[in-house]
Amino acid sequence: MLREWLSQAQREQFASKGYFDVVGGNTGNQYRIYTGTSANVCEIDKSGRLREGLCFTTIVDLPIGDVMLAQKIALETCEDEVRALARWFTPRSHHFRQTERRR
Fold this sequence. Notes:
The protein is of the alpha+beta class. The protein has one domain. It is 39% helix and 22% strand. α3 crosses α4. It is globular, with a radius of gyration of 12 Å. The model is unreliable at 98-103 (pLDDT under 50).
């Protein structure tokens, strides 16, 4: 279901890198959603560098793809609420590098 909700560019990015970028619906900030269910979302700058991490997830256990879809929709439709509720963390690039898919 996740892939059906992604744009063509997001599908290609996800297939080749294991993550996809989303634009926040309120601020226009860019976020990168990595494969995972928590501590897998980072705000990125215009150059794609990690800025701040956001930890937010669903309140029930769902498959990884469903959680990532919920995160995408939340950032696009209620970004301010997500930012208010999320736990913030300092992302470490080595943590996210392991989720990237190898060619």
